[in-house]
## 1
Amino acid sequence: MVWRLQADRKQLPLLLLRLLCLLPTGLPVRSVDFSRSTDNITVRQGDTAVLRCFIDDKSAKVAWLNRSAIIFAGQDKWSLDPRVELDKRSVLEYSLRIQKVDVYDEGPYICSVQTQHHTKTSNVYLIVQVPPKISNISADITVNEGSNVTLVCIANGRPDPIITWRHLNPTARYFEGEEEYLDIQDITREQSGKYECKAANEVAAADVKQVRVTVNYPPIITESKSIEAITGRQANLRCEASAEPKPDFEWYKDDTRINSAQGLEIKSMGNRSTLVVANVTEEHYGNYTCVATNKLGVTNTSLFLYKRVIATKPIPAAERDSSNRFKQKGPGTVIADNGSISLAASIWLMAISLFFCLICKC
């Protein structure tokens, strides 16, 4: 029974043509073999397909069929599809034009030509190619370090698109052959960032979409440095930490937590925190602790604010001799700059000599 139904189905197009008087009743009936003498026409979705058919006799009776449906019989259009029309560039051409081709147009088409002497059929198989299109991709995700992550990217197209994954980091690592699923075991902080899914089948430009993976991990101190400061000037102690989520910072002087008061100010932004000492005094010197915390952990580091001592510059010997040369002033000055006896010294010597002479006479 099944065989009989299949056989009847194959003969249905020919029976329909007989009803249209395209095939005479006495002509032997042959079933159509789509695998023999079939031309393949490949068209991209949305383009126009032209299925060529040529006749030898202007008086021939022709028809176009698709599977078991009649599209055109002679000049009469049986299809209700407005996209389908005849493409007759000459009296001997009976081609079929299909505009805005879609996937449901794919399949076998038959051009049947009936003359007084013979019947000829042209078999055309229409192949519709579809550009790649990503229909579903994982949403952005946040996980803790060490978790297992599976990313999904589903794409459609004809032929089936090839899917590749790429981690958009400086090394731009590709994950080829993973198809729709990308599995990451024991994910690390270095594996966070954007992942790109690319679907390609050479029909058109590849379709590309991205998903962001955020990896949470506890803070670690990446930079801290003790500094020297001069009394009376400003000093900045800096502390940087890497963490996800971004860390919160606290500062301590010895065991006392510091607030933004008494000449101290804490400025924190992102992964960096700065302790600003506006006017350094003796009480500000000493040990400080920077503490970075998030929901996954806490870490700290110690920094020192040292006192800077400004060294005095030694005076050269020549400058010392020159500076001492004029320290003694007044009547006691004996040596002048040029090394000779000054006039004032001579007068004093003469006065003293005269004084002793008068005393001796007396």
Note: The chain has three domains: 2-130, 138-216, 225-307.
## 2
Amino acid sequence: MRAPRVTLEQWRVLQTVVDKGGFAQAAEALHKSQSSVSYTVAKLQEQLGYPLLVIAGRKAKLTERGEVLLRRSRHLIKEAVNLEELANTLGQGWEPELEIVVDQAFPTPALLNALKAFEPQSQGTQVQLKEVVLSGGLEALKQGHPDLVLSSIVPKGYLADPIVEVEMVAVAAAEHPLHQETLPINNERLSRELQLVIRDSAVETPIDSGWLGTERRWTVSSIQSSLEIVSNGIGFAWLPKADLKEALENGKLKVLNLVSGGERAFYMYAIFGKGERTGPAARLLVELLQKECNLCPNKNL
């Protein structure tokens, strides 16, 4: 078998030059000198026998051949990283760190209880927890390799285990005018009031999933923000039932009496971002989440 003349590092440098838009920007991102980056790309082109980049203004752009090779090289480097991570998992067994991406609609009490049960069994595994909304979990999978993504959206090609059924409930503060209605509230009446909507945290392909097609809405970045605003008598919102227990029990919030659609349920899944390379710590956490959600009153499987 003939040994490759071009190294993975050369392809990585080329990718960075293209992604960052130039040699100076790539040098900064790679913590290398600009001359080193320029030499690496020049050597790559020399070895291949034709140019991959052209300079347009201050930016480096790919040639037609360069575009083809860059697409293939991205896949090559991704596979190399996956291979190293698999070797690390097989060699060490227990992951030194878990990267977990959680949709904010996931029941907070169940998540906290599972993490509390996980800590004494974690063997020192560090946890990196990131909260997202809607398609933010998909974007995290696209951009990196999180160990677990807790989301209602399972992308094609990923392994996932069902965890819990989440109920979203339409609520407003006890003193809100909607609670003065004597008959069940229809969409036409509801649309005349201010609605709080949670913004999709994805940057590239956000989803607009406002429950009503009304222009009278405020958009916030988190479920907690929506809960606090609604609790203070401003607007109404659909919020996770698991996070409303205290507010409903003390009477600060009340469930709206709607003609239909007052509650909406969907399943949350644990998506294994590393597939077959998922280690024992991630699998243990999923087992603990499933155990907690089996005890959760919102579980209805």
Note: Residues 8-91 form a domain with the Arc Repressor Mutant, subunit A fold (CATH 1.10.10.10).
## 3
Amino acid sequence: MKDEILNKAGFMFLNFGFKSVTMDDIAKELGISKKTIYKYFGNKEELVDESTEYVHVQINNIITSITSKGYNPIKENFEIKKMFKELFKNSKTSPMYQLKKYYPKTYAKLIDREWCMFSDCVQSNLTRGIEEKLYRAELDIDVVSRFYFSIVFGIHEEDYHNHEKYDLAQLEEAALEYHTRAIATEEGLKVLIEQLNNLNKDA
């Protein structure tokens, strides 16, 4: 039951907001009493904390399954981005922005976990990209991964949801294109253009 609560709560927080979703909302969605939720979690803050960790693990598992498919490094990044786009397709605001604003302690812990996962994933991708001659050989992998982390999480930390012209998924895609163009070889740019064309077809 606890995992069911974490799964449902995590999904609802991501899609409808950490502040607006109540314990009553979660109980109603699960068809259980609020008392059952409090059997496992002392308060909403505790549920937010554990559900974000639960979702983090699920996302990490999905990323691992994507990276095991043997895509070239540029296509791999676009497949991961596609997963995030699907995951947050109903989000009206950035979950990270809300978490930072309303649950700063949980946010701080999440950032530490995210950096470890992000760093491992991006550095592995960069290493393979250099080996496959899609990324430039002289890249400083640690610096590039930190730059990209700053861009991606900078998008999620900003109050973009108050500006109708900004769409979170489009900003993330723009960040990925910017990142790839900065590090790609001529061959890598050809692969990038192919991925961007595929995005336009799917739009």
Note: The chain has a mean pLDDT of 88.
